[in-house]
Each structure stands twice: as structure tokens, then as C-alpha cells.
Amino acid sequence: MAPVADPVERVRPPGNAVLAALVAGVGLALALTWIAGPTAGCVVLGVDLATAAVLRLVLPVRVAGALAVRSRPVDVLVLLVLAVACTSLAWVLPVEP
User: How many other C-beta atoms lie within 10 A of the C-beta of residue 2?
Assistant: First the structure.
């Protein structure tokens, strides 16, 4: 008798791939801060935080992984406030040449 194939193909969630991509963005922001200065690094960090907010808003909890800490509205609000704060500080703080 031939083995019966599983009719439902199992799809594994990506685990913490979303969080790993965002941590890579933070690393890019740190490298850019070292190379190009704090303004560029803070802007990239703000974009990374805004990206995290959008991902937390649209992805289900099982895909968001460790990005989902609290309820969805609280997570999105905190990430957006941090993104606006980082980006605003990038343009307000004086940078010595």
C-alpha cells in the first residue's frame, strides 16, 4: 500500500525574520551614523521604526513574532512616536562640522 500524502501543506511562520530585518536596519543606522554623521543615522533609525510600526499594523501576530509585545494599537503608537521623535531630533539637534 502506498503512503498517503498529507493533503494540507504546512506553512511555517517566518519566526523572528521580521525582527531580524529590523535589527539589521538599526545596525545600518549605527553604521551610517559613524560614516555620515548623526543626522543621517537618526533619519534611517526613524524610517526603521516607522517600518516596524507599519509591519506591526499589517502582519498577524504569528508572523510578526517578537515584534508583537503588547496590543496592536499600543505597539503601533509607541513605534510611531519613537519614529517621529528620532526623525525630529535628527533635524533639530545641532551638528558641529
Answer: 4
Q: How far is CA 10 from CA 2, 63, 81, in A?
A: 21, 14, 37
Residues 6+ apart with CB under 8 A from 13: 62, 63, 65
pTM over 0.70: yes
Q: Which residue has the cell 499600543?
A: 74
Taking only the tens place, the pLDDT of each residue in 39-93 is 999 999 999 999 999 999 999 888 888 888 899 999 999 999 999 999 999 989 8
Tell me whether residue 94 is exposed, middle or buried, using C-beta atoms within 10 angstroms of its C-beta: 0 to 12, 13 to 18, 19 or more: exposed
Rounded to whole angstroms, how far apart are CA atoms 73 and 50?
14
Ordered by start, the domain boundaries in the chain are 17-92
Please, are residues 27 and 74 in contact by the beta-carbon 8 Å criterion? no
